[in-house]
């Protein structure tokens, strides 16, 4: 682990400075694979709702690294025995690289194309890349170690726990960063305060008991961000358009349609023929350029959707209370009966899967396996561990939550064209009765 | 001027909220021409130096609008007689639209291609566009009015002055916004304080005398931003690479080189055959996608430069004090003599043309014509006007400033290849003697 | 209602600027009665825990005025019909003056001396004071109107509701202000966002439905402030010392003890012989000066307590879980049995009366009378009103909360003196067994 | 140097947290002498102008300690050879204690009473105090060492330089703190950035060359604070009243006047009979309580001045340009001729002694001796040192500055009484001609 002769810094709006002390970290940041993350936005299409949200996964990855560095530095300074000092470098690498496999608009593309960005992170780390060469130079199985942390199979559970839990550096950075760039200051929490209450303890990162309110503060900011930013109805609308573009283009691709222009990596994405070098060519500039070109495609459906995305002419929506899901379904069916295209002009959305997202307490008889992230544990003065929702009514209140509304998104122009065939009730609901 | 039934807001990290009260403003924001500004970064290649600087001209344009709105609102509330109330709407439109003509990486492209974004703003406003249709609906010559404010020929000089001066809403917003997104908090000044000291006065916007320190504060933040952000040597390096890419590609284009792929609008840019619809297709996604594709072009020079830009492998530099310009020239000549390509592998840069940029006081016998922006005037208690640098030593100190250094940027790999032909002095200077 | 020729401002760290537009408001601020609030700290003894918390009720009162001004200004700008415009001035006066009757360390003194600061606010407004003369000049019964708003008997319920509810300008200002001065940034919420969702509606101030999360944000910041600041165990300790000083001094006073020096207004406070002019002489400088003098009194108990307060030698404490109240009682009894003074050297504290403090939802069959503040109501799209805890699980979670601990505060030096008489269990509990 | 078992923190609004790691620092903070600083405001009477400025010297002293701690910690982390590691503890003590000798409203009292707070700091450190006992326990001459740093005679010049220079921790903390509490955000600079450019170098703290703009930023914030806060005309007015009270009371005291009540320590202050224990009883609560009592003294002059101070009825002022000093003098003389009291009802003020205050460059042939603080030096890449104003035009511009105005402060009521004897010109100047 070679130290840089002089510490280097990045100016960062969220953490003020990001400190790099190791040659390896510096070199990893300067690989083409890591630089590519500059061309992937952290929040996908959210910039169409919050215009400040243009920040990239590059800046987020640096932030995750920095928070991890601070946590480890505090563990070292306090000389906690449960922290394995020799794991520092591998831990920092995993923190820095865990998002390396994110593609353009990953959230939406993953839903449509069924692939997994964490798997791609590992492919890149273990493949024929500059990142791999740098990691291998430390020791031959170093890339595998880093990848196994991302895969959560690393032999030291505390390292996995530090990089991936329900209060990990990843979540802490993106909450603060997304709040900063969107301007949603209700998403802010006191990072220094949270870092001060973390403790390494028997293979886990836990929270000392007096830190309960600090965790509540963090979880409430998460709660606010979910409702105000991540589940914003306009963002959902732009994601729906984006998904429909991908579905239509893939459909055309499979049907042998001849595109005026389609970039090779996107073609291979649709055909599920991606390898690492091609995958690394996928970025949001490419996708957006394809969409811009497709606004002039012959296929009107595709051209229209792309034009909507490019010029931000999103679908409108009406809402239905949670208990009236069937009404939403009925309304959709009537619109289809009147002639609207159920695949491309309509969609029912129910985004409020909160328990999973804001905080999930372990349910009895259910393992934490799969993608589940470990819960937040309080370290009692006598040494026992208590899952936080058992102690905090506030956390409890957002753990079991199932509020929210169904939303029916629709193409308003298309609806107007068939409005003469709609019943008065639906017309009123859509505001087309005037 | 139709008011919206209910005020609409944009969440903005810099101004907290941006308030829209007029239907026209709302509609203008929703045109494809204005939405295109989302795809143009405010600070060009600066994101390669300050990773947070991903913000778009879209957000800046909203900010300029908002500051203008607040200034006018304060003028109205205080019932100043020198403010022509009937100019509000045209003024807000000009503030919102003044950057409409910015192209991708405008600063660099304008230098290479010799065109002017303000002229393009006017073309778009006066051309066959949605923006034009909306403005024309107010009254037939409304687009011309808006364009004439941008051209600084509008009949009401106070409106031109509000939209364009050395302390206009444009500069105020970009200083605050660039400081926010880069994280360079030394670029911050107290906007509320500055707004409170502005006064409309006989066809100009002036500053009441007690506001002198507020203006100094604003100008010093400008000064700091110039040195720390706008003239940052790494940013200059990325701009040099960018310009060289454009020069090489244009050269190839003119010489009949057959690109594997070159987007139509870029081809027409090189051939100076741009019309408004094609111009509107130019955005940074397109340029970046072209660069990415060109990394695989047969022309090694172009491919190499594009690869540098994409993966942020920028040119190194060495500095020469202002008084040693000739040394920089000698050094360059020696490198050329040793075999380096003077057009593509080397460049001397001297960015510190501060008097023009930070603040320019009017020089006797010199008109303010051309692109010169009016100076900042203090309104004395007895009603006279004094140019600020005559009253403030601080402003004076940054007005006549000619410090700064020459920098010789060079392709380090190319220099290494010919290093055996270099004299020891140059080798030492480039750090290649070890 | 005479407007000032030119708007005046106060620079305020919390609201940036406080704007005064009316001559009356300006004059009220400049009365001796209002200036006296500079000598009363907003948070009593909290500065002994959070050293930044030196801010005065003067600054808080200006802040309450400013928030009220902004709310009214927004109601006027939006031309809401349910807002009675003619009530503006009386409402601003009540907001500004509602804390006029606060005495030194009011919270503690009120507990010991059984008086009510709101009653004193009314006495000052209606008594022979400068404030009264200024208000009477508007119209003879104007002081009574202002006082009746504070007494919550004013004929326009919406005005009372604006000045006093569970989300009034008072609470909003003190949360933000206390968070700012203590440095507890987890107590911050987005004021602009909250103000944007308030609506006047049929004699009440309500929240439009989409504002629910904004209210949650506000209530959670309140919740955090209660646990982190207002109920901080060290602050409680200083309040206990303060109360014991007052009790002892009053006891001495009643028993005919001859003080070396006791200020006249404090003597009359103990004798319950206060009139308005004497009351106005009570400030924290006087109380602190008396305490400093009393460190040299012959009565050792009083002198010791005063010395503790002055030099911040507070009582230590041990905690007992809520369900173990009896243990706390037993421990206290044992200490008394061993010789400690139950009145002055010991106290059990249970401060967590949260439902009342953070948010209280109306209980069925219980009126809102007395000092109860009206609940927060959501305005449904169809016009109905719903109390917020019925809609928000988060609010619900902090409404019925009864967590918290008992704390036994004790004089450590006194405990050491009698420690040889204590059982081992108690010794261990107090950490005196080493 | 015993480390605390667990690091302790103070929540601080300016530095977020203040970290205490040594038992000695913790114990020093808890002495009565240091706790007394809670009762001395950092900015004297400034709270009468900026209502937020209630912060104490206690919080400032903690801040100076914290900045010093951070500087040393960075020096240690970077392993700079020119930093003598063994000096850490003595340096931290001096930083913490350097303001220990400040009295109530020190600035004003020092002017009137001719004493020196730094001398008092040393008296307290070397006298029979708890602070002395704690320091002596380290080693017998430790108190002397600490005092000699404050006296600037300590054998290690770099330690003196760290604690006292024109860019020392004292100035850095008070600029940030005063900006925070007044709300004057134009007084903010980027502390992290400044700390990053400091270097220990041959017995001095210098600034690495690339840090020049960071220093400019710091000095400009200082410049803004001087003009906007420290020299604010209203603050000057309150200081004038305060000085006149002290002068009058001292005069009465010397003339044998029998006060209804005068606290012993104040009496001894007037008689210059202060010893350490009595000095420690002087705090602002005591002074303010005396003033409040004196509003009822028989001496009308004293009673009137005290009433003005207590109720903030300050003197009005008129301004004269720097070149018209004689006019100010003439005006004053005329008012005296008409019957005003030259000692108590009038004062000419010229506060703008900027070169001394904002930044003073060393003048040739002039030593740095006495209270002069060392200049700021840039460390050139080749190792030479350059005084900053030789390199920075901005610093140069505020170094030789002699702008500013004379102000004639006067008792407006007294002026009105004799206004019939004044010439029309003076009447107009005072606005008494209407």
Helix tally of chain A equals 22
Helix-residue proportion of chain A: 40-55%
Q: In CATH's first tier, which class of the largest domain in chain A applies?
A: Mainly Alpha
- Main sheet record of chain A: 4 strands, mixed
Q: Supply the helix-strand structural class of chain A.
A: alpha+beta
Uncertain regions spanning at least 5 consecutive residues of chain A:
364-371
Number of domain modules of chain A: 2
Output the CATH homologous superfamily of the largest domain in chain A: Hypothetical protein af1432
Number of strands of chain A: 9
Taking all Cα atoms into account, the compactness measure Rg of chain A is 24 Å
Average predicted confidence as pLDDT of chain A: 92
β content of chain A, as a range?
Answer: 5-15%
Chain pair sharing the greatest interface: A-B, 41 and 42 residues
Strand order of the biggest β-sheet of chain A: 3-4-7-8
CATH topology of the largest domain in chain A: Hypothetical protein af1432
How would you describe the oligomerization state of the chains in this entry? homotetramer
Query: Gap between N and C termini of chain A, in Å?
Result: 71 Å
Using the 3D structure, state the CATH architecture of the largest domain in chain A.
Orthogonal Bundle
Question: Any idea what the shape of chain A is?
Answer: globular
Describe, in plain words, how this protein is organized in 3D.
Chain A has two domains: about 220 residues, Orthogonal Bundle (Hypothetical protein af1432), CATH 1.10.3210.10; about 80 residues, Growth Hormone, Chain: A (Up-down Bundle), CATH 1.20.1250. With about 425 residues, chain A is of the alpha+beta class. In chain A, α3 packs across α10, α5 packs across α13 and α10 crosses α12. In chain A, about 50% of the residues lie in helices and about 10% in strands. Chain A contains 22 helices and nine strands. In chain A, the strands form three sheets. Chain A has a four-stranded mixed sheet with strand order 3-4-7-8. Chain A starts with a strand and ends with a helix. The interface between A and B is large, with 41 and 42 residues. Chains A, B, C, D: This is HD domain-containing protein. Chains A, B, C, D: One of its GO terms (biological process) is dGTP catabolic process.
